[in-house]
Amino acid sequence: MQSDRADGPLDVSTEERHAMIAVAAYYLAEQRGFPGSGALDDWINAERHIDHMIERMRNNGATRRTLERVGLRNALHLWGQDSD
Predict the structure, then answer these.
(1) What is the pTM of this model?
(2) Domain boundaries, the chain
(3) In this predicted model, what pLDDT tens digit does every residue of 18-34 receive, in sequence order?
(4) 21 to each of 4, 8, 34, 63, 78, how far by Cα in Å?
(5) What's the confidence (pLDDT) of residue 66?
């Protein structure tokens, strides 16, 4: 049942993780004004941040519903407030 999955432990597939990283890398490039160089650094930073966000959410007992409600762009905005 879809509801069970939404309220269960946070489980992110490889494909979902990849898509989240791609979106995050885009937003990081957007913040830099899209200069040609830096795409690899954007991807690596996005990957690190997404993995950290997912792990932090899991540790806090977040569900898939929580992840969907928070939204990726809002989560990215919060990174600026993190000290890591």
Answers:
(1) 0.73
(2) 13-79
(3) 998 998 898 889 888 98
(4) 26, 23, 17, 19, 15
(5) 81
